[in-house]
Amino acid sequence: MITSLFVQRTNNARAVRLYVLTVLASITVVSLAFPVFGIQLPEWVVLAGRWIPALVSLLVLRLVPLEGGIGAWWRLRAGGVGRFFAGLGVGVLGLAAVYALTATIASLLGIGRLQTAGFLLAVLPTLVVTLLLITLSTFGEEVGWRGFLQKLLETKGFWGGAARVSAVWVLFHVPVHGVMAAQGTLSWGEAALVTVPLFALGLFLSAAVARFGSVWPAVFGHALPLASVNLLQDPGSLGPGERVTVATLEFGLLLVAASIVAPRRKA
């Protein structure tokens, strides 16, 4: 029994190292290939690159002996219709609530004005359709991060494992956003503002997955085509300091939301 547990932990550690290094190396090579050949990084790379974590997880499952099949490692079992929709509600509506509260606080601080109810109702159908389409790419990312890697790190406890997953997830975006900044698609400040806050978002998504035992809340929550600044009128007019303030508020509220959603410790 002790020997079996030792072997399992050793294999898990090998799988973590192989997975993280391969994913980060793959996205770095893909991102740098375009500027090396003098080509502007196309937008489709961002969507297609989200499937790298899923593909690498399949490779690791082939190379390292791990107990269980793809369904278990990708956390595809929803646990029933009710639990499936409850998870989706937390993943999508929970994030929407965080963004709405962030925008509201920002407006009270004098940073922009909230979008009108009429505008939000008008764009709601577009948001729903876009969310469903984006899940085709976020599925490939979430089964790798919040499914495979988070399961490998369960022995670290929820917060220890989730923090590691989120940290690597942030690093995964650095090559893409760095190339976009170097090529002028984003400013370096904008690149930082869309990269660093991913740590808090990752914790929230991990909390939803751990609470419902399924990757689906993260797949749909990650696909939500919305951010706090989108709920403010004329977000393009916000200054750098105002954008940092909004991002900081959003970061803090995501941490609070993650702590609420995360599973409680058993006595």
TrEMBL record:
The CAAX prenyl protease 2/Lysostaphin resistance protein A-like domain is annotated at: 126-224
- Give the residue spans that cross the bilayer: 18-38, 44-64, 84-111, 117-136, 157-176, 188-208, 215-232, 244-262
Q: What Gene Ontology terms for biological process does this UniProt record contain?
A: CAAX-box protein maturation
Give the UniProt keywords, A-Z.
Answer: Membrane, Transmembrane, Transmembrane helix
GO MF annotation list: endopeptidase activity
Q: Which InterPro entries match?
A: MmRce1-like, Rce1/LyrA-like_dom
Q: What is this protein called?
A: CAAX prenyl protease 2/Lysostaphin resistance protein A-like domain-containing protein
